[in-house]
Amino acid sequence: MSQTLVKIAARWLLCLMLAVAAAIRAVGLVNSTIAGPQQPVRDYLGALQKGHGGKALGLLHATVPPGNAAMLDGTALQTATSRIANVKVGDAEERPGNQVMVPMEYTIEGSPLRTEFLLQETGREWLFFNTWPFAPSALPTVDVTVVNAAQATVNGIPVNMPNGRNSFAVFYPGEYEATLVGEHFTAPARRATVSAPDEPVGLNLLTVAAEKLKTDVGTKTREYLDSCAAAASKEQRLQPECPFYHVTNNRVVPGSIKWAVSAYPEISIEPFDGRWVVSPLDGKARVTGSQIDLFTGTVFPLDEELDFSFTTRLDIAPDAIRVTPLLAY
Predict the structure, then answer these.
(1) What pLDDT score was predicted for residue 309?
(2) Which of 133, 134, 130, 127 is nearest to 29 (CA)?
(3) What is the pLDDT of residues 161-178, one digit of tens each?
(4) Are 147 and 271 a contacting pair, CB within 8 Å?
(5) Beta bridge partners of 201
């Protein structure tokens, strides 16, 4: 009877020891995976990719610097991480003060990148499982400037640009793209990658006049020159109130004067002193008619092609474009 009890007790003791050993292994496995310092990094990246900025900010324990918060949630945030691929979260490396550094290697459009996260052990949950929150930090910023514009688009989101500039708090890692696509002005896209919180990043948009604006200004310029030439022909004037004129010592036969624009100016619109200006407009005009030599009385043709140049004032309103010729007499 006693031998049977001993055998039963031994079996129970063995089972208990195996259970304890299994529990110890399970705790160790959980601490190295789910409760390990790599998991918060994975959770943080997952929140970024889903556009959950509030969750990502809570995980990162980061303060938000002054600036525009348009990039911290939703579509803009998802866009920032949409090109992140080939993610590999590495083993934790010990740092002083119960801290560890967890590296994350990844690629953006084929370029290899690395971001290092600092986490700190703060205690245990359920007596066994380690807790590894991120060490407090501050979010980086992306500074965007745009020439002569009050709006831009960053990661697909329209944003205001007071005085042509704005600063955006952003998460990392991520890619941020700024551009300007408007009816009158455009700026080629500029892109930058933020892989660390202490990286100064700037995107400078170089605004240019859109083809439609140049076409509209060119159309108004041609209309002005054609109407000016028609008026000069109707009024039979060699020196009309136009950018072009002709001076001669001969007498021109009344009714024979005819003006026409033979080469229209090329349109170039450039930024200057916080506004947009049309570069000087250079063209050619042809005047024809009959003229009389005052000394001999001979009648002979008048056919001259004349260079002309003038400047304009460009006024752009939301619903209209005005081109005002500036002529010096």
Answers:
(1) 96
(2) 130
(3) 999 999 999 999 999 999
(4) yes
(5) 142
Q: How many CB atoms lie within 10 A of CB 246?
A: 19
- Which residues on adjacent β-strands are paired with residue 324? 313
| Rounded CA separation 36/132 (Å) | 7
CB 238 within 8 A of CB 248: yes
Separation between Cα atoms, residue 80 and residue 177, nearest integer Å: 8
Residue 8 burial (C-beta neighbours within 10 Å; 0-12, 13-18, 19+): exposed
Domain residue spans of the chain? 17-134, 141-208, 211-326
Rounded distance between C-alpha atoms, residue 56 and residue 50, angstroms? 10
pLDDT band, residue 319 (cuts 50/70/90): confident
Alpha carbons 113 and 83: distance in angstroms, whole number? 12
Q: Which amino acid is at 233?
A: S
Cis peptide before 173 (omega within 30 of 0): yes
Residue 164: name the closest of 179, 151, 178, 181 by CA: 151
Distance of alpha carbon 271 from alpha carbon 152, whole angstroms:
17
Q: Does domain 141-208 match CATH 2.60.40.3080?
A: no
Strand order in the sheet with 151-154: 157-160, 151-154, 174-181, 185-194, 208-209
What residue type is assigned to position 110 of the chain? G
- DSSP H or E stretch at residue 97: none
User: Which pair of structure tokens corresponds to residue 118?
Assistant: 């600092």
Give the H/E segment covering residue 2: helix 2-32
- H or E element that contains 138: strand 137-138
Q: Where do we find the tokens 């938000």?
A: 64
Give the residue carrying structure tokens 């509030």. Answer: 54
CA atoms of 263 and 283, how far apart (whole Å): 5
Q: Please list the residues that pair with 282 across neighbouring strands.
A: 309
Flag whether pLDDT at 31 surpasses 70: no
The alpha carbon of residue 121 and the mean position of all alpha carbons in its chain are separated, in whole angstroms, by: 39
**Token pair for residue 223?**
């209309």
Give the Cα separation of 220 and 320 in Å (integer). Answer: 12
Asked if residues 229 and 285 have their Cβ atoms less than 8 Å apart, the reply is yes
The amino acid occupying position 175 is E
